[in-house]
Amino acid sequence: MSATTSAVTTAKQTHRSRVTNGTALLAGVDGRSVWARRLRDLIDLHVSDLGGSAAVSAAERSIVRRAATLTVELERLETTFALAGAASAQDLDLYQRTAGNLRRLLESIGLQRRAKDITPDLRDYVAARAGEPA
User: Fold this and answer.
1) Cβ neighbours of residue 26 under 8 Å, at least 6 residues apart?
2) C-alpha distances in angstroms, 73 versus 10, 11, 12, 27?
3) Which of 14, 29, 64, 90 could potentially form a cystine with 46 if both were Cys, beta carbons 3.0 to 4.6 Å apart?
4) Residue 24 near residue 39 (C-beta atoms within 8 A)
5) What is residue 7's predicted lDDT score, i.e. its pLDDT?
6) Cα 134 from Cα 124, distance rounded (Å)
7) Is residue 31 part of a domain?
8) pTM assigned to the model
């Protein structure tokens, strides 16, 4: 292993970009805008669905980021459609292609089912316990 490779693999946390270390959402962009806040919310929701930040690989995080960006832009188009009362053929084509790409990104990280709550309610639990021998 060369000295250059060794230096790259052992870089200190303080030598990482603001985007990488999580202090900035996008380089040079104010993260307080409505668009940036919605993007951050979606990223957090997707990462949570994947098991949390510690369980998500860098590649999955990258796909989540792109999926969140497409979602925000699709929502903007939907707002435009709703306010205008219609969609132009060009905007509708863009919307459909973007939605298809979003679906493919989401499929690549997995569209996971939510766990179903199977906890019995208290009455069922007490009734079951009452029928058991002590």
Assistant:
1) 19, 36
2) 37, 35, 35, 19
3) 64
4) no
5) 52
6) 18
7) yes
8) 0.70
What is the residue type of 124? Answer: D
Structural domain containing residue 54: 18-114
What average pLDDT does range 93-106 have in this prediction? 97
What are 34-79's pLDDT values in tens digits?
A: 999 999 999 999 998 888 888 889 999 999 999 999 999 999 999 9
Q: How far apart are the first and last CA of the chain?
A: 68
Annotate 14-46 with b (16+ C-beta within 10 A) or e (fewer): eeeeeeeeeeebeeeeeeeeebbeebeebbeeb
89 found inside a domain: yes
Domain count along the chain: 1
Residue 4 within a domain: no
If you average pLDDT over every residue of the chain, what do you get? Answer: 83
68 falls within a domain: yes
Cα(89)–Cα(15) distance, rounded to whole angstroms?
47
Inter-residue contact 131 to 123 (CB < 8 Å): no
